[in-house]
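Record 1 of the preview.
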Amino acid sequence: MPEQAQEKYQVRLEAFEGPMELLMHLIQVNKIDIYDIPIAALTEQYMAYLSEMRRFDIEVASEFLVMAATLLLIKSRMMLPKAPKETEEEEVEDPREELVRRIVEYQRYKKVSLVMEERAEDESRYVGRAPTELPARFAPPQGLSVRALWEAFHRVLTVKRDLTIPEAIVAHEEYRVEDQMQMIVERLLAAADGATDFEDLFSTGSRDELVATFLALLELIRRRVVIVRQPTLFGPIRVELRDPAGLPEAAMAANEG
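->
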């Protein structure tokens, strides 16, 4: 036989990793009911496959030979004359019962293995990393979020000053946000390092003044005049001029409408 034809057949044989997989292939191709297996026909096809393997000088694995012996044994038991029943209720053991049980278990195994392969393929898209300790110090490059600032401001009102935040402010506004922006910038300009603690901005003043100061701080952040950081974990929040070298520009930005 030409070498090309032999290689093609060998590739086809590699599809069966074991005797149970070969059996399942024969059962599916012939549309066999596993609970009513025509054991003679199945055994004949199985043995023909083993013969083809030997024909192409392919070593037959021991597990294939064990399955072949099992099929031949079942076939021979099926061909024996049945012993007469002593009673009508007595059931005669089917020689194929053990084979059917093994096939059903193999089907379950294949289903589970397919699910595991899909999960493994999904997980292969991600790279795992061992847990690491939370660093003692950190400095977020983009500063703190608005939510973090609001929580810090809420603590100033409710804890240090024993104040609560009303649902709505209906009184006449006594403090202008623009004035408070100027106050913050002037305080930062007066600081040697152009920075101050967040809570120092709210150390004095009424509730209305503190709210206006907080809104002013948010506006300065939006205009990129200042930035807020938390140099140590759970430590004090620092308010800094974004560009200490451009102090006059910062003051002008605070006055812009």
